[in-house]
Specification:
With 357 residues, the protein is an alpha/beta fold. The chain contains 15 helices and 9 strands. Bound molecules: ligand G3I. Ligand G3I binds next to loops.
């Protein structure tokens, strides 16, 4: 077995037969207890997050609001009943970890990671290099290329090194492309140049050679200029032997922006053919209040979860939040699989139908 954290993340590639058998037996042994616990949640769905790992399915993950999760209430119970992996929504972004130029503040992120380890939940680190949520001191400063490059190297090395062995995967570069497929203008692209992407991946690999390293991006779910540009970028990184392991398809969708199953399978297979893991990393589906909206939403979730299940390279299916009570889109858009009250929506049944045994 390559790395313990992958077990918690439900990796489908790295477990041998004996290990799977042990996991399955352990899973059965704890099942009764966990079912009792899950029975106390608000969803009324009798499925268990460990079953997915035992059945060799993609792991189910969700972005979490740490302030809610740390309280021992229904939000935490609902999460623990159904998910084996979490992505911190904000606590590992640069504005949170680097509030001043002189040091790093790991307190919140450390608490979150300790909680996850205690509860056998894998943590997907999000995100090392992005154009948003940057500290003011960094964006306001006039940088030379060597100085910014040196800072970014120091930052990535310190953060990935700090969590080595506890955070098994990272969104190293988030959203590097524009809608047309050009390099997205950002402080990184402007001052360091396009190769900040390759540099960042190399520095992250240097700090934790076992971590799975992702490029994470939205609007890749259908063939088009952005999806094609991402393919070329990843192909080039692979050709240059830059350590990139995975692409995260964010999948922020709606009835207006949704792939067909065939479109999604086409793009996912192309990335997988490069030898990459291809996860769904931030799915949500914003809908209105018209009749049939939740059924339509469930169909979109089923399409994406089904494409993930059918592709061996798709190892994790993560939604950006899990209850409509807590979403960057606002509760009114009802984008997530559980209602604001914690009841399972048609979307959850669609996901469970595809991804849980
Ligand atoms: O922490 C401050 C708080 O101190 C302040 O009082 C408050 C006032 O507005 O703002 C708080 O920061 C907010 C932060 O979320 C934490 O709640 C920011 O204003 C707000 O902009 C930020 O939004 C986040 C957004 O990224 C920023 O771009 C969302 O929570 C988060 O869900 C969203 O996540 C992104 C992924 O990282 C990348 N992919 C797209 C996805 C959705 O936009």
């Amino acid at each position: 077995m390559a790395r313990a954290p992958d077990i918690r993340g439900g990796s489908r590639w790295r477990l041998g037969g004996l290990e799977l058998a042990i996991l399955f037996t352990l899973g059965l042994a704890v099942l009764v207890g966990v079912r009792e616990f899950a029975g106390g949640d608000d969803s009324g769905v009798g499925v268990d997050r460990r079953e997915a790992a035992a059945a060799n399915r993609p792991a189910l993950g969700a972005a979490v609001d740490w302030d809610r999760l740390r309280g021992a209430g229904s939000y935490q119970r609902l999460f623990l009943a159904h998910y084996s992996s979490l992505t911190p929504e904000n606590e590992m972004k640069m504005d949170a970890l680097a509030p001043t130029p002189d040091g790093l503040d790991f307190r919140e992120a450390d608490e979150l990671v300790a909680w996850a380890i205690d509860h056998e939940v894998a943590v997907h680190g999000h995100t090392l290099v992005w154009h948003r949520q940057l500290p003011g001191w960094l964006t306001e400063r006039r940088w030379t290329r060597p100085a910014l490059r040196a800072y970014l190297k120091r930052y990535i090395t310190a953060v990935v090194g700090h969590f080595r062995g506890r955070v098994a995967s990272w969104d190293v570069v988030n959203e590097p492309l524009t809608g047309g497929g050009a390099p997205r203008p950002s402080i990184w692209e402007r001052v360091i140049g396009e190769d900040y992407v390759a540099d960042s991946l190399r520095w992250a690999h240097g700090a934790d050679p076992h971590a799975q390293l992702y490029v994470n991006e939205f609007d890749l779910e259908r063939p088009g200029p952005k999806s094609a540009a991402m393919y070329r970028l990843l192909r080039e990184l692979r050709r240059r032997q830059v350590p990139v392991d995975a692409i995260g398809l964010q999948a922020h969708l709606s009835p207006r922006w949704r792939p067909t199953g065939r479109e999604l399978r086409t793009v996912m297979r192309r990335y997988a053919d490069l030898g990459l893991r291809v996860d769904i990393s931030e799915m949500d589906v914003a809908v209105g209040h018209e009749r049939g909206a939740l059924a339509e939403q469930a169909r979109i979730y089923r399409t994406v979860a089904g494409a993930c299940r059918r592709l061996a390279a798709c190892e994790r299916f993560t939604t950006w939040g899990f209850t409509d009570a807590s979403t960057w889109l606002g509760s009114d858009r009802r984008p997530l699989p559980f209602s604001a009250g914690g009841a399972a929506k048609p979307a959850w049944h669609a996901i469970a139908g595809e991804l849980l045994p």
